[in-house]
Amino acid sequence: MKIIERDIPEATVQALVQSGISPLLARLYVARGVQSCEELDTGLGKLLPPSGLMGIQTAAHVLADAIAAQKRICIVADYDCDGATACAVGVRGLRMLGAQHVTYEVPDRITDGYGLSAPIARRVHDKGHELLLTVDNGIGSVEGVAEAKRLGMTVVVTDHHLPGDQLPTPDAMVNPNQPGCSFASKHMAGVGVMFYVLLMLRAELRTRGVFEAGNQPKLDTLLPLVALGTVADVVKLDANNRRLVAQGLQRIRKGNMQAGIRGLYEAAGRSYSQAATSDFGFALGPRINAAGRLADMTIGIECLLTDNDALALELARTLNSINRERQEIEGGMRLQAFALADELFEDGVTPPAAISVFDPDFHEGVVGIVASRVKDRLHRPTFVFAASQAEGKAHELKGSGRSIPGFHLRDALDLVAKRHPGVLLRFGGHAMAAGCTMVEEHFHTFEQAFAQVAQEWLDAKTLTRCVETDGPLDPAFRQSEVVEQLNLEVWGQGFAYPTFSEDVEILSQRLVGEKHLKLQLRHRGDVVDGIWFGRTEPLPEWVHMAFRLDINEFRGERKVQFLVEGTEG
User: Fold this and answer.
1) Are 472 and 452 contained in the same domain?
2) Residue 6's CB: how many other CB atoms inside 10 A?
3) DSSP secondary structure of 160-182
4) Both 440 and 477 in a single domain?
5) Distance between CA 481 and CA 477 in Å, rounded?
6) pLDDT tens digits, one per residue of 459-506
7) Looking at residue 443, which CATH number applies to its domain?
8) 453 and 471, same domain (yes or no)
9) Predicted local confidence at residue 485, as pLDDT
10) Do 174 and 61 sit in the same domain of this protein?
11) Distance between CA 264 and CA 304 in Å, rounded?
12) Neighbours of 26 (CB within 10 A)
């Protein structure tokens, strides 16, 4: 592992300090590329205007016409947290804006697979719907959109995924990543795109005289859902996304949120008054995702749609139980995947440039999480495959991949598909996460082809795990109040949680829970507790350590401790 200190221009730091930003936060912001206080303004007025999104005006016209005619609208959502929150935002928002007939359809992970397919289009049509609206999918649904149009439905696609070689032809399409779209925030989650469509729809309805500015529906009440989906989907938290998340967090902390979010906080044993981005990424998001992985995502969506507190809590507790099952399945799969990955290279030998593993006993709903764990362990682009559980598809493998910085996963799949026609039945995704389907007999071909692309694209520097840090920690900031302040800020993908690094002395170390290293450290002359989760090997007396700050509460005493991210050497 290599520890790299971020470049922190002192002049920019001082400019922020003079504007009223605390010295510590000023350093952290500048280290993440912030140049001015304006970028830190989380006010709604600072959001990028919806008009910048290609196709959004057309989408607003189409949806406004559908509301005027009271057409039956069906939202087709993805089965992850982004899809679930986007669906809830879409259903709630359209109803707020006057639509009386809005329902949703979620593809089954196993039987339907991802996205709007032709069978799903037929299913939606057979239920009597006249307008089909996708959220968090659709850019790759060429056949599904064509079938919906053939059946006479109006189709609006809202998505954020990268396009393939061929685009669908709906009545309107909104996606910041579609060719020709100049929208500055290319990293919006699906839920963010749907929220923006609602903003433009409301503006369109104002021009038609349906609302006036003084009595229009308050769409900002949907921002807790937008914040949750944005963080859970691990999209880059650029300035616009940070504003969306900050606005959602502010409302949650004040108790202004959907019953489902409140229920999820209670089920997770967390306090919404101190709501943080980590809650979305590690507590609420996984509970909703678990429904799509192992059960039925309608449980998650209904939790987010209900206004009944008792029902919301009941559904949140159901999601909690499903998530516990997911954790048990994942635990076994993770160990097996580690073992399979280790078989690809000998002890002391550098792992191959990319990892692909498959086991007949793997569960397809959990392959993405396990791929992420293997990727973290070996610092290699990783695909994990499971046999399809769909009827008549047992010969097919469904894979989910996770990448490392500097390796574009979807582009890699595209190259594999071009070099080996027919190996991949379907693929799609982003730079850091992607999925694909193939016939089992092609697994070894894929494994070799994927590793070959990685070998060509990645050099030794990229294949070395790096931890970027904010440099040494001033002991004056080693206070629980400071940690609490940091936790209230918006951190996440592309705007990393504060991590510090410097030489520390190891005073004592012992294993806890058989798999974590409990430490006592000397930092700048003071004794500090530390813990390294997942580490069992002992450390030398002195190490150059990368660490985050945490508060450990024990018997009513609150002490700052270091969460070890790694050591150099």
Assistant:
1) no
2) 17
3) -SPP-SS----SEEE-TTSTT--
4) no
5) 9
6) 999 999 999 999 999 999 999 999 999 999 999 999 999 999 999 999
7) 3.10.310.30
8) no
9) 95
10) yes
11) 9
12) 23
Q: How confident is the model at residue 267 (pLDDT cuts 50, 70, 90)?
A: very high
> Does 430 or 85 have the greater pLDDT score?
85
Give, for 380, the enclosing helix (H) or strand (E). none
pLDDT in tens, 190-207: 999 999 999 999 999 999
- What are the strands of the beta sheet with 433-439, ordered from one edge? 355-358, 382-387, 396-402, 433-439, 424-429
Q: What percent of the chain has pLDDT over 70?
A: 100
Q: Which is nearest to 404 in space by CA: 354, 357, 369?
A: 354
Residue 423 shares a structural domain with residue 490:
no
195: which 2 tokens? 């929220």
Question: Is residue 446 in some structural domain?
Answer: yes
Domain enclosing residue 562, as ranges: 467-567
Query: What is this structure's pTM?
Result: 0.94
List C-alpha distances in Å: 149 to 22, 118, 121, 159, 237. 55, 10, 9, 18, 35
> Which residue, chain included where needed, has tokens 């196993």?
110
Report yes or no on 3 lying in a domain. Answer: no
Give the pLDDT of residue 315: 98
The one-character DSSP state at 129 is: -
pLDDT digits (tens, 9 = 90+) for 285-317: 999 999 999 999 999 999 999 999 999 999 999
Residues 437 and 475 in one domain: no
CB 90 within 8 A of CB 135: yes
Whether 328 is covered by a domain: the verdict is no
Contact 245, 227 (CB under 8 A): yes
pLDDT of residue 445: 98
State the Cα–Cα distance between residues 136 and 85, nearest whole angstrom. Answer: 10
Asked if 124 and 154 count as a contact pair (C-beta separation under 8 A), the reply is no
Q: Token digits for 275?
A: 């709501």
Q: Helix, strand, or coil here: 345?
A: coil
Whole-Å CA distances, 531 to 62, 374, 515: 55, 21, 11
Residue in this structure with the two tokens 């936060």, named with its chain if needed: 25
Last residue in a domain, options 457, 485, 514: 457
Alpha-carbon distances of 78 from 131, 159, 161, 428, 464, rounded to whole Å: 17, 10, 12, 13, 34
Among the candidates 412, 430, 457, a domain finishes at 457
User: Does residue 178 contact residue 201 with C-beta atoms inside 8 Å?
Assistant: no
Same domain, 352 and 239: no
Are residues 151 and 212 located together in one domain of the fold?
Answer: yes
CATH code, domain with 557: 2.40.50.460
Nearest to 427 by CA among 453, 389, 445, 401: 401
pLDDT, tens digit, 9 for 90 and up, residues 435-455: 999 999 999 999 999 999 999
Q: How many residues appear in the chain?
A: 569
Number of folded domains that form the chain: 3
Query: What's the DSSP call for residue 492?
Result: B
Per-residue pLDDT averaged across 234-260, rounded? Answer: 97
Residue 569 confidence class, pLDDT cut points 50, 70, 90: low
**Cβ atoms of residues 133 and 89 within 8 Å:** no
In a domain, 203, yes or no: yes
Predicted pLDDT at 257: 98
| Structural element, H or E, at residue 285 | helix 285-294
